[in-house]
Amino acid sequence: MLMRTDPFRELDRIAQQLTGVTGTWSRPSAMPMDAYREGEEYVIALDLPGVAKDAIDIDVERNMLTVKAERRPAVKADDVQMELSERPLGVFSRQLVLADTLDTERITADYEAGVLTLRIPIAERAKPRKIAIGGKSEPRQISG
Q1: 105: three-class secondary structure by DSSP
Q2: C-alpha to C-alpha distance for 18 and 41, rounded to whole angstroms
Q3: Distance CA 91, CA 51 (A)
């Protein structure tokens, strides 16, 4: 149902951790996610702790789902001196190719406790269904 678009994203994440470089809109960092099927819908959960709800963009074009988020620095008073800063700031992004069997017209999104949860219903045309067999039901005799 879902394909990852960039197999080298994990290497980029490790390099960013080692160099301390955070994401920008032109080169965003990856965000961790889980994806699973739950009943008749596909669920994608993305970790975005510390990101304001209005700093999240979700777009879908055809079957490409794009999630971008920006963690901005907290406003600090003039007399505050930072002693330690380990939480990454900047832009985070994830692009996913969705299967044609998903209904991209009815995607819902919820954001709670730093987790963005997207629910994508399985399209009606992709659900299993019984096919009725037509024709006459009277027995016929084969002559030979």
Answers
A1: helix
A2: 38
A3: 10
Q: Structure pTM?
A: 0.68
- Could you give the angle at the alpha carbon of 54 between the alpha carbons of 50 and 60, nearest 5°? 105
Length of the chain: 144
61 three-state secondary structure? strand
* E strand map for the chain: 2-4, 33-38, 41-47, 56-61, 64-71, 90-98, 108-112, 115-121
pLDDT in tens, 20-32: 555 554 556 678 8
Give the separation between CA 98 and CA 58, rounded to whole angstroms.
14
